[in-house]
Amino acid sequence: MADDTVLVGMDGAVATVTLNRPKAHNAFDDALVAELTRTFEYLGGRKDVRVVVLAGRGKSFCAGADLAYMKKAAGFSETQNIVDARAIAGLLMVLGGLPKPTVALVQGPAYGGGVGLVSACDTAIAAEGASFALTEVRLGLIPAVISPFVVRAIGDSHSRRFMLTGERFDAETALRIGLVHEVVPAKALEDRGEEVVQTLLRCSPDAQRRVKELVDAVSGRPIDDALADDVARRIAEARASDDGKEGIAAFLEKRSPGWWA
After folding, report:
1. What is the CATH number of the domain that holds 240?
2. Any residues with CB less than 8 A from the CB of 179 and at least 6 apart, and which?
3. Which of 2, 81, 138, 143 has an alpha carbon within 20 to 30 A of 64's alpha carbon?
4. What is the pLDDT of residues 10-19, one digit of tens each?
């Protein structure tokens, strides 16, 4: 429905999740966080959904926390604040842990929690006019719940810089520091997103799930015998999987694998 805070559109195996609070710049409140979490949990469990696209309706992608809700939260007890913050952390964990590729299309400003959403996606494409900021320190706060994903995306050095200054930065800077993967003209954003989606659909969904698990498993680990045993086991399992067998057979037989359909 037009007044829903989260819109979900299906196009074959592609689900597009659109933040739909344009008048509030798609800012977080407890209802939006809960609805997004339910939506991603639902899509993550659907076998017919192979790619999830995240977008924002209106001028902004996501302006972070809703000011009216922040004013309300200022009166929360410590326990209530922990529960509220844990809900946002849970949302990002669900999004970041989806067993299928995710693509963020950032058409406008992404601040605070909006940066967290971008960081939690596998691929992020920004329009040239998009802007970004981690403004929490200017409000006497810290970007705590989004920090695991932001630091993973842009590293310690850039995280310190932009978390400490709270300054805005443009799409080209976001590209340079690794927050987004591509910057395109605004009018080309959806088309480029569709190209990336089609590229993802050409790949094995089982292998994509395994890749996401692989990256999480090897990131930050020392390169030692234990890691070598782990990755050897993973490739052996992939070779023995249905998609692994189908992919090799299709290559040798010069045909498209079954998942292309």
Report:
1. 1.10.12.10
2. 115, 118, 119, 124, 132, 150, 153, 154
3. 2
4. 999 999 999 9
Instruction: Give the position of tokens 């000011």.
Output: 67
Number of structural domains (the chain) is 2
Residues 6+ apart with CB under 8 A from 118: 61, 104, 106, 110, 124, 132, 153, 179, 180
Domain identity same for 127 and 213: no
DSSP per position, 173-195: HHHHHTS-SEEE-GGGHHHHHHH
Q: What tens digit of pLDDT does each residue of 81-93 get? A: 888 889 999 999 9
Q: Which domain holds residue 158?
A: 6-201
Confidence of residue 100 (pLDDT cuts 50, 70, 90): very high
How are strands ordered across the β-sheet holding 110-111? Answer: 110-111, 131-133, 168-170
Structure tokens at 198: 């089609």
Active site residues: 136
